[in-house]
Structures are given as structure tokens and as C-alpha cells.
Amino acid sequence: MLTGKQKRYLRSQAHHLNPIFQVGKTGVNENMIAQIDDALEKRELIKVSVLQNCMEDKNEVAEELVEGTGAQLVQIIGNTIVLYKESEENKEIVLP
């Protein structure tokens, strides 16, 4: 689990990032989870945007992504979900 201090740090790191995945009306699927998991391994911290036409609630989408990838939910702001997962091979982010 992330502490409040770690989440604040990750939020500040994520501020300048652009969402690299979009969840649309098809919702979350296995392929998307696999791609997001790969991206997390490379980048550790990513944003996922939930489009207006998504049938699922953004909180449900975040839950599915966290369960599917084993990532930590940093925050949900507007329709953007920020996820963090420590990389096995490309560790760059040092948590406070």
C-alpha cells in the first residue's frame, strides 16, 4: 500500500504526463490490461483516460485495472486515472 506522502509524490510526478490509454464504450478487456501492464513495466507511472462514451463508472474501471495489472491506484481526477506499479527491470521512481 502507498502512504499519503508517497501518493502526493506520485501525483506531482504524474501531473505533466498525458494519458496513454483510453477506455471507451467497450470498457476494459484482457488485451487492454496486458498492454497497460506492459506500459507500467516500462514507465511505472501512467495515466488512463475514461472517455465519455464508456458504459462503466470510472471507479469501476479503476478497480478493474488495479485488479488486472496489480498496480496501485494513485488518484482519480476528473475522468483520468493515475496508476503506479514498481517496475522489475526499469525502476526509476524512488518513493519517499
Automatic annotation (TrEMBL):
Keywords: RNA-binding. Residues 1-96 form the CRM domain. Coiled coil: none annotated. It comes from the Bacteria. The keyword Transferase does not apply. The keyword RNA-binding applies. SMART domains: CRS1_YhbY (SM01103). InterPro entries: RNA-binding_CRM (IPR001890), RNA-binding_domain (IPR051925), RNA-binding_YhbY (IPR017924), YhbY-like_sf (IPR035920). This is RNA-binding protein YqeI.
